[in-house]
HAD family hydrolase
Amino acid sequence: MAHAGAMRDPKDLTCWLTDKDGVLVHGDRPIPGARELIEFWTEHDIRYLVITNDSVQTPRDLSARLRRAGLRVPEENIWTSAMATAAFLKNQSGLKTAYVLGEAGLTTALHEAGFVLTDIDPEFVVLGETRGLSYEQITKAMRLILAGARFVSTNPDTSGPAADGIVPATGAFAAMITAATGRRPYVVGKPNPMMMRSGMNQIQAHSEHTGMIGDTMGTDIVAGMEAGLHTVLVLTGSTDAGEVDAFPYRPSRVLDSVADLLPLLRG
């Protein structure tokens, strides 16, 4: 497919960021070419990071899940929206206390950033991906926000995939809390370029020499573009070729899958 703008040559890039779902895996099934791409990066000492809005699992859990799909990605090569949120909050002023609506990926990241998790006058209310929200938890979060707690969420996604269909996600629960309180959260995950920059810091990447692979124009591609990266849209996830023209910006390249990236890297 035609692509827009002057482009860097993929084989000259020294670092890569890649989304997980729709790029490397569908659920627990690897996407053709994903294993070979990870192996190529590893064999050629090319720094890479799997960067995902998934805040449910820790990097160790995600690494194990990817391994079951045949992809050997060490936990230090994984950067989640939970980790980016913890990194952001660690550098914010105020007490390191938070009331958290989320799973182990988020609570672990906040603990490692030095936070105390509490529902007594916290500095922050932090919302992440979770399937276990209760009416009592949402009510508590609303009251804390109205009492002055700063509202932060890990990602904007309003829905996500499950084995039996879509399910509500972080953005949908955030919208409910916003409707009740009038307070909008600061959202750290993609498409916020802050998540990209914090991930790049982890692998000491520079935008001029880094590529971003994603399957979603409105998160992966725009985030990569705003961070100054070479962007590659693959059509194995949530975007098909016909949808690209609906956006006012374009990825650097559009490929059918990551399998089509490998020949470009080999030169």
The CA atoms of residues 129 and 150 lie 18 Å apart. Residues 135-146 form the longest helix (12 residues). Residues 1-6 have pLDDT under 50 and may be disordered.
